Amino acid sequence: MSESHEASLRDKQSLDMQTVEAAYARWAPVYDLLFAALLRPGRRAVASIASRTDSRILDAGVGTGLELPMFKRGTRVFGVDLSEPMLRRAADRTRRQRLIQVAGLARMDATRLAFADATFTCVVAPYMLTVVPDPEATLDELARVVRPGGEIILVNHVSSQDTALSALESWLGRYVASTLGWRPQFPWAVIGDWIEARADMRLIERRLVPPFGLFTLTRIERTAAFARSGPQPSGVGETIEHTAG
Ligand SMILES: C[S@@+](CC[C@H](N)C(=O)[O-])C[C@H]1O[C@@H](n2cnc3c(N)ncnc32)[C@H](O)[C@@H]1O
């Protein structure tokens, strides 16, 4: 395991479910004001790729649902999030804008999804992986619910190679990650090592997205070979409330 990957594992200790929930209860009222425009390019890129076919899409960490209007009508999008206050805003947006592509929204932990294996043609997670306490367990669970031939599409900050910036990210990771509710230091190895360890995953694209190339879009295909890992949740599919239509 690389040194930077070890650092990310150490930072796991500074984020746990309660910390993340508490942080997003604080962010929810101001989230759209602060992050709607800043993070729009990555959301648009994700939605445009995911909307290529008449997909059944899982949006993991849907937040206030800023990306929901960007999915093509004709897709079926299920949004899940740990934070009730963030989800309430996503539900309001869905109703207000009559987003018929939104098939359901539910409070769910992305490491224990109540969906059957291979439910979705595409799983997207915009700006989510640096926020979850356990990124590898989250990736395992996203992989479980995507069909062979389907894709996982991520957008998140990946740590800088610049040593000064990387030291600052590491410091922030140790001292303020729990207040912010996200991990400023997130080495590529977290995703890269995970892909390498899975016989059924293939990196198909990795590119920077605006603003200033601060974020990385990653497309991972689930190939036909199937390597199941980790415990399986007991809940299955269709537990989601219908919020639109
Ligand atoms: C930075 S926000 C991104 C929201 C939205 N995708 C966007 O682009 O604005 C990250 C979201 O991930 C959610 N989250 C964090 N950990 C989670 C988990 N284990 N399961 C589900 N959602 C989680 C947070 O509650 C938060 O709403």
What does this structure look like?
With 245 residues, the protein is an alpha/beta fold. It has a single domain, classed as Rossmann fold (3-Layer(aba) Sandwich), CATH 3.40.50.150. The chain has 8 helices and 7 strands, in the order αααββαββαβαααββ. A 7-stranded mixed sheet has the order 3-2-1-4-5-7-6, with helices on both faces. It is globular, with a radius of gyration of 17 Å. The N and C termini lie far apart (47 Å). The relative contact order is 0.19. The C terminus is likely disordered. S-adenosylmethionine binds next to α2 and β2.
Task: Summarize it.
The chain is an alpha/beta fold and 245 residues long.
List keywords for this structure.
245 residues, alpha/beta, Rossmann fold, seven-stranded mixed β-sheet, 22% strand, disordered C terminus, binds S-adenosylmethionine
Written as H for each helix and E for each strand, in order along the chain, the element string is HHHEEHEEHEHHHEE
The number of domains is 1
Work out the strand percent: 15-25%
In which range does the helix fraction lie? 25-40%
Rg from alpha-carbon coordinates: 17 Å
Task: Please write the CATH class name.
Answer: Alpha Beta
Alpha-carbon distance between the two ends? 47 Å
Give the bound compounds. S-adenosylmethionine
Structural class: alpha/beta
- Per the CATH scheme, the topology name is Rossmann fold
Gross CATH architecture? 3-Layer(aba) Sandwich
Largest pleated sheet: 7 strands, mixed
Average pLDDT over all residues:
85
Assigned CATH superfamily:
Vaccinia Virus protein VP39
Shape type:
globular
User: What is the number of beta strands?
Assistant: 7
Low-confidence stretches: 6-13, 229-245
